[in-house]
Amino acid sequence: MATESYNVALTRLLKDEGGYTDHPSDPGGPTNFGITLADARRYWKGNATADDVCALPQTVARKIYRERYWNALRCDELPAGVDYAVFDYGVNSGVGRAGKVLRRVLKLSDRTSIVSDKVIAAAGERAASDLVIAICAERIGFLRGLKTFPVFGRGWTARVNGVRAAALAMAQSRPLAPVASAPAEASPGKAVVPVKIPAGPASAGAVIAAGAASAAATSRLEVVAMVAGAAAVTALAIFLIWRWRHRAHQEAAVMPPVEGTSNGLG
To answer: The domain spanning residue 121 has which CATH number?
Structure first.
């Protein structure tokens, strides 16, 4: 099951990451297949440049993901679904943060990020679906607190929602929806999340509440936007009707009398 989970997780992650980008607001800088310039220098080529990242072979990206993220978080030993949720979190926000969050939702100390034997054992005793929901809820709450959320928030939210849905299907042994291809510039959640903010203490219940609150806030904003849009359309329609009637009235006032009708001259 571990190999199957890895293949599913990597396929979905590469779709979310897309191809090469160098967004000015992305702290990761030049990035390809989700591999930043810093990671390229650390795990591939010590003097790598932005051009090297642009030409990065996908085989190199796959090797880095397997060794430095999936294996580092011991995802082969985690329950199906939990492995994907932790793996994607690690890629987007750092292995250290993902490890701390996993420990925290398992009610273990998060003073370290090490995925130890105790972590693996605790994960095996919990319902995988509950862990997936808790991890993704904490992730949404964390992302909403970042200063770059206004720039990348919509994509990040879509990405986490997609990860949660797929991870829950994996945890429940349900078939997953096929992964649709998308151009790099349209891939959601592509930006690398800065990892300078430490993973603070929180209970699993708190992170679930945070995720629910963020989802509710997003829904309220969508409703407000829809209402505002409908009001704008209605106002425009009223204005156009008024202008048409006003012009018709003016034209009728200056129209010359029709020949053969009374004009007051006898």
So the answer is: 1.20.141.10
- Cβ(112)–Cβ(186) below 8 Å: no
Whole domain around residue 101: which residue ranges? 2-223
DSSP structure class, residue 67: I
pTM for the structure as a whole: 0.70
Amino acid at 133: I
Nearest CA among 215, 200, 195, 7 for reference residue 92: 195
Per-residue pLDDT for the chain (266 aa), expressed as one digit of tens each?
466 899 999 999 999 998 999 888 788 899 999 999 999 999 999 999 999 999 999 999 999 999 999 999 999 999 999 999 999 999 999 999 999 999 999 999 999 999 999 999 999 999 999 999 999 999 999 999 999 999 999 999 999 999 999 999 999 999 887 776 544 444 555 566 665 444 544 434 444 444 444 444 444 444 445 545 556 656 666 766 666 666 656 555 544 444 443 333 33
